[in-house]
Amino acid sequence: MRHLMLLVATLHLLNTAHVFGNDKFTESLQLEPLDNHLVLGQFKFSVTSSPNVLTTGHYHLFPKSLGEILHKYHIQELELSLTQGLWRYARWGIPSDGVANPPGASILVHFDSELPLEDVDKHWKGLINSLAGFICASLNYADNTVATSPQYTFTPRGAFNANKTFQHSHLRYANLPQENVCTENLTPWKKLLPCGGQAGLSSLLNSKPLFDSNYHSMSIIVRPQCKTSECDSINLNLTLGLSVVLAHPKKDYFTLSFLFRNSVGRECHIAESSTVVVKFPTVGKLSLHLESPPDNTVSSEQHTLASYKVTSNFNLKASYKVKPTYGAVAPPVLHTLRYLSGYGQEYGSIVCEITNNAEEVIQIVYMEYIPWFLRIYLHTLSITSNGSKVPVSKLLYSPGLERKKPSMFELLLNLPANATTVIRFDVEKLFLKWTEYPPDANLGFHVPAAIITGVIPDAPEGSSIQMLREGYGVVRFYTEKLVVLLPTPDFSMPYNVICLACTVVALAFGSIHNLTTKILIRPKEKKIPIMQRVTRKVKKVLGFKVEEAVTSTQQVQSSTDKTPAGETTPRNETSVDSEPTVDGEVSLEDSEVTQRD
Fold first, then answer.
1. What whole-number distance in Å separates Cα of residue 217 and Cα of residue 232?
2. Cα–Cα distances in Å, from 500 out to 98, 202, 262, 496?
C-alpha cells in the first residue's frame, strides 16, 4: 500500500511538472533615439501559458491573481493601460510596437460571446472593481456612465475561435483621462513579473527616472495566441509592456545605466530569452555608433536593428555619429490635432484636424467618445478638406443620456491624399448639480481622446517611421484629451455667508447669553420695629447721642480691612446690611444678587 501511494504521488508530480513546463517567459527592451536628446525605451515581458490554466488552477508563471479575475468574469481579451503624458506623433512618429496609449487609465474588454447579454453589465461592474484593487487605480469610476460599446473601432486581435462569433455588444471600452499614474501602480504591476523586478531587465524599472520622464505608459494585455501558423491550437498570452521617453543631458552619447539610474545586476534565469535591441536610422542625424559589438545586426535602407543578449552586469553605450538636432524625426504619414473652439461656458465646438501626408487616400474609422455632461448636436457635424466636403461612408451614432451613458459616434472616412481633413461639431455644456463638482471645479472636466483606426501605407523615403502593422495591417492611435470648463457656480459665496453668520453669532452670543441666563433679584427690606424707631426719635430730640446705622459700604470696607494679608474676599459673596436712618429712611440690609445658570 505504501509503495502504491508513493507511485501515485510520483505520477502526480510528473503530470504537474508537464503542465508547468508549457509556460514560457521572454523579456526584451528596445531603445530608439528621438529628437531633442530623447530616447524611447520599450519594455516587453511576455508570459505564454496553456488556456486550461484558468480552469484547472495550476499556475506556474502566469500570475494567479490575474488569472482568477479573467476566469471569474469570462474575459476573452483584456487591454489595460495607465499612461502619464502625451505621445507626440508629429515629433516622435508612430512607435514601433504601436503602444501609444491615451492619457489616463484605459480599459478594453472582450467578454466571452457565450455570456448572456443581460449579464455583461453585471460582469463589467465586477471586473472594474476587481481591477481597481488589483492595480491600485480608480477604475471603479469606469461604470456604465463612462463605458461604451463601439462597433467598428475595436475588433479582437488575438486568436479567435471559429466556432464563436464576435459581438460588439459583448465589448466594453472606458477611458479615465484624469487618472494619475504613480508608484502605487508600478509596484503591483512589477509583482506580475516572474522575477518580480529583482533580476533581468525588470531591475531597470527604477521609479524615479520613469516618473520624471516626458511620457510613460504601462499596460497589461491578455489575448489568446495561435501556437502554429495553422492555428490548430491556442495558448494564453500575457504581455506586460512599459514605454518611456527619457531625456539625457549628455550631448553626444547615452548609456543604459545612466538612462534608468540602475543596471542589470543578475540574469533572470526563468526567461528563455532576454535581449536588448537598439533601433536607429541607418543614415541620418540620429544614426548611432555602438561601443560594444552587438550579437546580431539587421540593416535596411532605413533602419538598423542591433540586438544584445542580456547577461549579468550588462551595460550599453551608444554615441551619436552626428550631433542631434530638433526635428530629426520626420513626421508620420498620419497625425492629428484636436482642440476646443468657441467662447463662453454654455456652448462650444470640438475640432479635430487629421493630416494625411501620403500620396494615396487612407481609409479610417474616426471615433468620438464624449461624456454625458456635453450634449452633441449631430446636425452640426461637418467634415471638410481644402474647403470641400468629405463624404461619410458610414455613420454610427449612440446618443448619450444625462448621468447614465456617454455619447459616441463612429465615422468611416476616406482621407484625401496630401491634405488636412477637419472634423467639427458643436456641443452644449450642461449644468451640473452642486454635489457633482469636484473640489477643483475651476480646473475643468476632462474629455477622453478620440480614436483613429486605419491602414497606413508605406512610409516615404527617408522617413524614420517603422511601419506598424498589427493584425491585418490596422493601426490605432489616439488624439489629445481635452479639458472643458463647464458653467461653475461661485463656490466662495457659501463660504462668505458662513463666515458672516458665524461672526454675527459670536458677537451677539455674549450679550444674549447674559440677558437670558442671569436674573436680578430685588433685595429684601428689613423691617425695624416701631418702638425702636420711636425711641431713637425721642433720644435725638432730647439731645442724647444716638448710634448711627452702619451702611453697606462701611460694612464691606470694615470686613475687607479685617482680611489677613494674602487673602481676598470672594467676588460672588457680598453681604450688604443696612440700618434705618433716624429720619425713618430704610437702607438696604442683607441684599444679595443671585445668579442662576
1. 34
2. 58, 58, 58, 6
Give the range among 14-18, 105-109, 209-213, 435-439 with minimum mean pLDDT: 14-18
Sheet of 392-398, strands arranged across:
392-398, 407-415, 362-370, 451-455, 474-478
Residue 394 has φ and ψ, to the nearest 5°, of -155, 145
Q: What is the pTM of this model?
A: 0.77
Predicted local confidence at residue 252, as pLDDT: 81
DSSP 466: P
Q: Tell me which residue of 491, 593, 515 sits closest to 552, measured CA to CA.
A: 593
Confidence grade of residue 454 (pLDDT, cut at 50, 70, 90): confident
Residues 6+ apart with CB under 8 A from 128: 107, 139, 140, 142, 143, 174
Strand partners, 446: 483
Distance CA 375, CA 428 (A): 5
Residue 58 makes CB contacts below 8 A (sequence gap 6+) with: 16, 19, 20
Cβ neighbourhood burial of 127 (10 Å; 0-12, 13-18, 19+): buried
By C-alpha distance, which of 306, 320, 264 is closest to 38?
320
Rounded to 5 degrees, φ, ψ at 563 are: -75, 130
Which of 15-29, 153-167, 401-415, 496-510 shows the highest mean pLDDT? 401-415
The edge-to-edge listing of strands for the beta sheet with 303-309 is: 171-176, 104-111, 75-84, 215-226, 234-247, 38-49, 24-34, 273-281, 303-309, 296-299
Instruction: Report percent pLDDT > 70 for the chain.
Output: 81
pLDDT 10s digits, 508-554: 887 787 778 877 777 776 777 888 888 888 888 877 776 655 444 44
Distances (CA, A) of 84 to 87, 101, 181, 207, 489: 9, 9, 6, 13, 30
What is residue 545's predicted lDDT score, i.e. its pLDDT?
72
Q: Which of 318, 214, 198 is nearest to 256 (CA)?
A: 318
Strand partners, 109: 78, 172
Give dist(CA 361, CA 421) in Å, integer: 12
| Side chain identity at residue 579, one-letter code | E
258 band by pLDDT with thresholds 50, 70 and 90 = confident
Q: Which grid cell is 33? A: 533615439
Tell me the backbone φ, ψ of residue 572, rounded to 5 degrees. Answer: -80, -5
Taking CB atoms within 8 Å and a gap of at least 24, the contacts of 349-353 are 349/380, 349/424, 349/425, 349/426, 349/427, 350/424, 350/425, 350/427, 350/447, 350/482, 351/422, 351/423, 351/424, 352/422, 352/423, 352/424, 352/450, 352/479, 353/420, 353/421, 353/422, 353/423
Residues 211/261, Cβ–Cβ less than 8 Å: no
Strand, coil or helix: what is 161?
A: coil
pLDDT level of residue 597 (50, 70, 90 thresholds):
very low
Distance of CA 283 to the CA centre of its chain: 41
What does the radius of gyration of the chain's CA atoms come to, in whole angstroms? 41
